Design the sequence.
């Protein structure tokens, strides 16, 4: 691919990025400006989901590969972090970093073969991966006699008073994912990846090593998902395999990315904020109504917002390049 | 001798469960094969069918066998309407879109069911289905499972005949191969897609009714049947309808073996590892006759 066929590069910092930097500066200073613990907690939840949905978006939005098993890496992240903290008494940050590495290793060995599958086959394959991971995690302690997941009873992590550290960890993860998406929007790597998303056979025929590109994004997104899982587990201070590997987490990631805008850098952040606030207002009082409403919203957005979804499902190179 | 008897009994259980799995998966296979929609609400249709039978029997004492046509009709209408009014818009669009719409539908069905029926487990007690047959002195065959398996396999066979030998079947197959060509020769593709979804959904409802013969019914059962159906369909070959019989057989037997010889908690794990391995190394299914992308 010669550089002459690429559209002109957009300036790295446009108006949208400047606004985002402003918001980021405000978010960094928010705790110092005397926000209540409740506000901080809500913001942390939003950052967490934005990072998860954003990590999913890197693969689905840019390479067109619909992964239905990312929760696999959240679970791995949570339990590996817990293992390092409880068994080797490591502090939180090194533990979660090691968990991220472990997830990358597992993603490279077990996960990347699924990338050879296409379309529906990839979706089902990754779903199978996540579900078998959950079942294995539930049975792990009885099978191996090595206490790790606590079976269906789960495990408790040491309590911590420092909720601010989670705020900054989740904020950093969200920023990392968004920057990665911005970079994919304008780098050679990103163009190759989107060529894969639009027509992988054509991309391969024009000399893009599609498997290498997808592998890197998959492993990277697994790493972020595991880091979020590790931080979330410590934050919750109690984790069990059924919840940390729950398919509903995957679905929520997918829905948030779609609501906000698939294949856009800030979409997952918007989707995460919108859905988290909705569930905070409605979810606690009307659980079933809330989920029914979410179902209706998903159907309606998918069917009747073709401009929204078209921009989401089909990458608009020109529009995005000039934005 | 008892070890051998255990093995035979285990295989028998697996085969009986496999027939029902085949019936519960064939609708997913049909719909995917014809319209390319991967129906994430599949398990919810199975669940609704199970509830039709449960309530008709519990409230009105209708014989469970007589509830099967009701279950088929109710789910047929629901499936037809869903495809005609809702899913038709996803035609020719990326897979993600139909996956999302059906996922939204599954959320709606599941949570309405939870609200109306709560998450309680309910089990039918039908006297004539509660009996067991003894073969020799060793093997036990519960009548409910035998009936469910027999009817399930018969239904898969009936669907295969419908597709192979009838005018409707030809129209469905033509639409599956190339809907634009089918349209040119006078097939109303929108109606055929809706009929296909209706039939697939009706069969899934009957499969749910068959499950209600011997297992507890609850709104949350749907998800696991969506997953089982994916597994069965992939094992048999995606898009190759009779393959579900093989897929169901393999899944049922593999689960029964792991429950007897490994651990009950691992039967799902075995199912998904099997699915993963087949998808990775034999994408056309164990019979090698599925569609490979």
Sequence:
């Amino acid at each position: 691919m010669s550089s002459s066929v690429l559209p002109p590069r957009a300036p790295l910092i446009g108006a949208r990025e400047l606004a985002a930097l402003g918001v980021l500066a405000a978010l960094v200073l928010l705790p110092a400006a005397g926000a209540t613990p409740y506000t901080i907690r809500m913001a942390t939840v939003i950052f967490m989901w934005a990072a998860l949905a954003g990590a999913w978006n890197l693969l689905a939005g840019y390479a067109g590969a619909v992964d239905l098993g990312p929760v696999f890496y959240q679970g791995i992240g949570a339990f590996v972090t817990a293992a390092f903290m409880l068994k080797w008494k490591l502090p939180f940050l090194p533990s979660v970093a090691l968990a991220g590495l472990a997830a990358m290793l597992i993603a490279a060995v077990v996960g990347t073969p699924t990338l050879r599958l296409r379309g529906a086959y990839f979706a089902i394959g990754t779903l199978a991966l996540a579900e078998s991971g959950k079942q294995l995690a539930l049975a792990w302690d009885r099978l191996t006699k090595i206490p790790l997941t606590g079976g269906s009873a789960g495990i408790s992590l040491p309590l911590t008073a420092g909720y601010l550290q989670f705020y900054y960890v989740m904020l950093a993860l969200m920023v990392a994912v968004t920057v990665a998406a911005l970079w994919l929007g304008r780098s050679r790597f990103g163009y190759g990846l989107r060529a894969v998303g639009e027509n992988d056979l054509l991309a391969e025929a024009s000399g893009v090593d599609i498997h290498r590109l997808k592998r890197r994004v998959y492993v990277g997104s697994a790493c972020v998902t595991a880091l979020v899982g590790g931080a979330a587990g410590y934050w919750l201070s109690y984790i069990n395999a059924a919840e940390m590997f729950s398919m509903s987490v995957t679905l929520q990631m997918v829905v948030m990315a779609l609501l906000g805008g698939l294949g856009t850098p800030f979409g997952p952040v918007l989707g995460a904020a919108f859905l988290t606030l909705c569930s905070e207002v409605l979810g606690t009082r009307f659980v079933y109504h809330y989920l029914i409403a979410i179902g209706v919203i998903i159907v309606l957005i998918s069917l009747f917002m073709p401009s929204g979804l078209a921009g989401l499902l089909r990458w608009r190179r020109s529009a995005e390049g000039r934005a | 001798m008892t070890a051998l008897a255990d093995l035979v009994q285990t295989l028998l259980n697996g085969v009986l469960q496999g027939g029902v799995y085949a019936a519960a998966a064939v609708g997913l296979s049909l719909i995917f094969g014809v319209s390319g929609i991967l129906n994430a609400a599949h398990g919810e249709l199975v669940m609704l069918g199970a509830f039709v039978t449960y309530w008709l029997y519990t409230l009105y004492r209708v014989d469970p066998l007589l509830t099967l046509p009701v279950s088929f009709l109710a789910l047929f209408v629901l499936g037809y309407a869903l495809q005609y009014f809702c899913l038709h818009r996803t035609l020719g669009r990326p897979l993600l879109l139909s996956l999302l719409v059906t996922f939204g539908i599954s959320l709606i069905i599941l949570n309405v069911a939870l609200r109306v029926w709560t998450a309680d487990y309910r089990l039918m007690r039908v006297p004539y289905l509660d009996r067991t047959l003894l073969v020799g002195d060793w093997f036990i065959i519960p009548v409910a499972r035998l009936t469910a398996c027999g009817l399930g396999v018969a239904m898969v066979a009936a669907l295969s005949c419908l597709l192979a030998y009838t005018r409707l079947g030809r129209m469905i197959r033509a639409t599956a191969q190339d809907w634009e060509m089918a349209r040119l020769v006078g097939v109303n593709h929108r109606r055929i897609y809706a009929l296909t979804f209706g039939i697939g959904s009706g069969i899934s409802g009957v499969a749910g009714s068959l499950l209600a013969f011997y297992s507890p019914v609850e709104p949350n059962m749907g998800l696991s049947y969506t997953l089982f159906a994916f597994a069965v369909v992939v094992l048999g070959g995606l898009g190759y309808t009779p393959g579900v019989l093989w897929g169901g057989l393999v899944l049922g037997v593999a689960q029964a073996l792991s429950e007897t010889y490994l651990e009950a908690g691992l039967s799902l794990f075995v199912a998904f590892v099997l699915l993963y391995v087949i998808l990775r190394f034999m994408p056309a299914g164990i019979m090698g006759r599925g569609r490979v992308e």
